[in-house]
């Protein structure tokens, strides 16, 4: 009697190799596109071009035998298959990303390095309060600060390149946890030559004939979207947008009377740029505009990575008490 032929081990090995090329890397591509709802934003987050990213997603869809995205004009949505896959893909990647922390804990290393993103207008008070809380409660954690604007920090947080981010809100989204740390009232930085005397306050309507200057809105899209709406409601329609995220250029435009800028009245970096310049920073009236500082983290990592859990504990226990500013209606 003839026996059934045995499958070739080499064939099984080749098939596993084919599938394994899809596993983690392609899942990271899929999750990035699903969370960003944009191939271009996902490509920026992954530090690659949009065209090869789109090709990798096509490869993944062929491997699974199903379309994962609905590609519409200027918008990407998940198909039913994509919606089913997303939480499972996130879970797999979070578990893999947490392996380093598991190994680190198993070897009982005394020092753990935490990568903390910090946005430009985070005040020294918030920064130092967090560092003090870590030193007191978790002396084994060595914080490394990474300065950047809000949008790049949130991309890096989602990509797992930083552990916690101090950014300017509103900030959050699917899979992210956050806590408000501080609200700073906003004032207008205006050349002294454009105002009479030293007014105690000024309205945005008073500045309607002067262009509003800002850095590129890609640095914090949600903030600038809300700010544009506020300016439009008050009759400020002229804009000067710097091509990069360099705040220093604003000082030249404001000091020479070519534009005005909005800055935090507290300890923010931008306000300090105007010190020594012929510029007045005047509190705004008839508006409750403020700059919010928010701590953001990935909820799944806080559940699986002791380092992130300790960072969140330090933020909530030692820094969040600073949230004493006015509430936004």
Automatic annotation (TrEMBL):
GO MF term set: DNA binding; DNA-binding transcription factor activity
GO CC, one annotated term: protein-DNA complex
Domain HTH lysR-type: 22-79
UniProt cross-references to Gene3D superfamilies, sorted A to Z: Periplasmic binding protein-like II (3.40.190.10), Winged helix-like DNA-binding domain superfamily/Winged helix DNA-binding domain (1.10.10.10)
Keywords per UniProt: Activator, DNA-binding, Transcription, Transcription regulation
Family classification: Belongs to the LysR transcriptional regulatory family.
Name by which UniProt lists this protein: LysR family transcriptional regulator
Organism, as annotated: Gordonia desulfuricans
């Amino acid at each position: 009697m003839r026996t059934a032929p045995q499958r070739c081990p080499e064939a099984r090995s080749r098939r596993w190799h084919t599938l394994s090329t899809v596993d983690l890397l392609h899942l990271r591509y899929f999750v990035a596109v699903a969370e960003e709802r944009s191939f271009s934003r996902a490509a920026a987050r992954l530090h690659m071009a949009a065209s090869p990213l789109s090709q990798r997603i096509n490869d993944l869809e062929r491997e699974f035998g199903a379309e994962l995205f609905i590609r519409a004009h200027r918008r990407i949505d998940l198909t039913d298959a994509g919606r089913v896959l997303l939480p499972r893909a996130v879970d797999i990647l979070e578990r893999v990303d947490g392996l380093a922390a598991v190994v680190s804990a198993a070897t009982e290393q005394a020092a753990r390095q935490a990568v903390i993103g910090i946005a430009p207008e985070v005040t020294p008070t918030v920064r130092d309060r967090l560092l003090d809380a870590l030193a007191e409660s978790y002396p084994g954690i060595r914080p490394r600060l990474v300065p950047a604007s809000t949008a790049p920090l949130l991309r890096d947080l989602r990509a797992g390149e930083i552990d916690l981010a101090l950014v300017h809100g509103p900030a959050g989204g699917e899979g992210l946890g956050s806590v408000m740390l501080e609200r700073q009232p906003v004032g207008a930085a205006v050349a002294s030559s454009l105002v009479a005397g030293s007014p105690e306050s000024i309205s945005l309507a008073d500045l309607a004939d002067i262009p509003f200057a800002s850095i590129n809105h890609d640095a914090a899209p949600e903030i600038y979207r809300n700010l544009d709406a506020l300016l439009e409601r008050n009759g400020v329609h002229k804009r000067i947008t710097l091509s990069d995220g360099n705040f220093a250029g604003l000082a030249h435009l404001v000091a020479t009377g070519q534009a005005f800028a909005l800055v935090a009245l507290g300890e923010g970096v931008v306000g300090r740029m105007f010190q020594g310049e012929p510029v007045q920073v005047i509190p705004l009236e008839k508006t409750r505009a403020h700059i919010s500082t928010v701590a953001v983290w990935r909820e799944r990592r806080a559940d699986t990575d002791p380092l992130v859990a300790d960072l969140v504990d330090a933020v909530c226990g030692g820094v969040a008490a600073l949230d004493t500013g006015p509430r936004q209606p």
